[in-house]
Design brief:
single chain, 469 residues, alpha+beta, Rossmann fold, Phosphorylase Kinase, domain 1, Aminoglycoside 3'-phosphotransferase, Chain: A, domain 2, 3 domains, seven-stranded mixed sheet, cytoplasm
């Protein structure tokens, strides 16, 4: 339990409430402490309206009713209690507040009237300041520093009034939020590792060359916070799901994008993903998957040197291009005739031109028909004039390397980080590995994997039993 202290005006207080509302979950309790007129109801009102969004109701103080409840379009119920007039803690049973705390989000003013305070509650203590326009706020609870940093950032960027809604993240520690305010929408990117500089550099590079990266609206790279243009919700993955008849045309657009991208000289600020680096990355598979499936005799230790040797033979002679790396249907935005929107490219590298083609055509989350994969490769080759035989061999190698690494990452996310949901993608990823290993040039790599259990139902159950809790 940590305590953070800050001085805030009304806008900052509301921005903090909205930021906490974005990540609150059913069962969370927030205790609002402070004297009469400190701003507890102001905080609660901003919190509840942020949860409700366009359907927001009036939020009166529940001083006389003691409790007000609000339907929450985000999937739960919000209880707002004011215990100032509570004369006996036993009355809480009549209010139903104790029971509600199990499934609702509860905001409780005057928590000192309670007989016992919840152990896991977040406390927001609001006190007057010498300046009547300011309040001194002390927050006590777990994992608060990022929420406070986000609130300060959006306040400084002029988005203090915006509603904040979490967006689906990825397998990293980065988090994304959509801000909706009077002037439209934007996306807040929170990278606690503070690695935003590369994203900013790549954004400028891509936009200067006409690619569909979002406009940068505000940045604090030292804090790991960015505010960028909202490119919308039409992820290519959703468009492909809703309009399957257009799958080939959509993949033609994606292939054309890669052809255009690869005509540009690689920027000098991206790292190289060469043979040794690819081999090192494959170590993630050897470090996690064999042990998780009870192959404890050093299985997989030969994978990295084999990949390095194969890269030297099959791919090292090809001049590298810019690879956005996490280039797949979940990171592309469909915008009609406008250029495809690009997100999540901060890990861009200099690599063999087959790498991003593999990434989008052998997608862990989305099945691409083999005929579309074949047609897309042929389209890329026709546009670039690269040697077909060598390109297809390199494509198979990069596909095997990338998907082995993904299997290692998904295993680690379960065993170490307690995130088993990625295991559901592993059979598809294993299928890609087998497809790539069927290329004759990859026979040495195929031999190193002989006898390794596939991620079938029994194997995945074995991994789940090791999942961190």
């Amino acid at each position: 339990m940590t305590t953070l202290r800050l001085t805030a005006d009304q806008d900052m207080t509301a921005a903090l409430a909205r930021m906490l509302a974005a990540t609150a979950r059913p069962g969370d309790t927030i205790l609002l402490d402070g004297p009469v007129g400190a701003g507890k109801t102001h905080f609660a009102r901003a919190f509840i309206r942020a949860r409700q969004g366009p359907a927001a109701e009036d939020v009166p103080s529940p001083t006389f009713t003691l409790v007000q409840t609000y339907d929450d379009p985000m999937g739960t119920e919000v209880w707002h209690a004011d215990l100032y007039r509570l004369t006996d803690p036993a009355e809480l049973d009549e209010l139903g507040l104790d029971e509600a705390r199990d499934s609702a989000i509860c905001l409780i003013e005057w928590p000192d009237r309670m007989e016992t305070l919840p152990d896991t509650a977040l406390t927001v203590a609001i006190m007057p300041d010498d300046d009547p326009d300011l309040r001194r706020i002390a927050l006590s609870g777990p994992d608060l520093s990022r929420a406070v940093a986000r609130a300060r950032f959006v306040r400084g960027a002029g988005w203090a009034d915006a509603r904040v809604v979490p967006l689906a993240g990825d397998a990293s520690a980065r988090r994304y939020f959509r801000l909706t305010g009077p002037d439209g929408a934007a996306v807040l990117m929170d990278d606690p590792a503070g690695d935003c500089g590369q994203f900013v550099a790549m954004t400028h590079w891509l936009r200067e060359r006409g690619f569909g990266a979002p406009e940068l609206l505000a940045a604090d790279t030292a804090a790991g916070l960015l505010l960028v243009q909202d490119l919308g919700d039409d992820l290519v993955a959703r468009v492909l799901r809703d309009r399957p008849a257009q799958a080939q045309a959509i993949h033609d657009r994606i292939t054309n994008l890669l052809v255009a991208l690869h005509r540009h000289e690689v920027p000098d600020f991206v790292p190289a993903l060469d043979g040794p680096a690819l081999a090192e990355q494959a170590g993630l598979f050897a470090d996690w998957y064999p042990q998780a499936v009870d192959q404890t005799d050093g299985f997989g230790r030969d994978i990295a040197p084999v990949i390095a040797a194969l890269h030297a033979d099959l791919a090292a002679d090809q001049p590298p291009v810019l690879a956005l790396r996490d280039f797949h249907a979940e990171n592309l935005i469909w915008r009609g005739e406008a250029p495809l929107g690009l997100i999540d490219y901060q890990d861009a590298v200099s690599c063999h031109p087959a790498y991003d083609l593999v990434s989008v055509l052998q997608d862990a989350r989305h099945e691409v028909a083999p005929a579309i994969e074949t047609a897309s490769i042929a389209r890329y080759l026709a546009a670039t004039g690269l040697d077909e035989g060598r390109f297809r061999a390199a494509y198979a190698l990069l596909g095997a390397q990338r998907n082995l690494r993904i299997l290692g990452i998904f295993t680690r996310l379960c065993v170490r980080d307690g995130k088993p949901r990625y295991l559901d993608f592993m059979p598809r990823v294993w299928g890609y590995v087998q497809r790539n290993l069927a290329h004759p040039a990859l026979a040495p790599l195929a031999r190193t994997l002989t006898g390794l259990p596939a991620p079938d139902g029994a194997t995945l159950d074995r991994i789940r039993r090791r999942c961190a809790r």
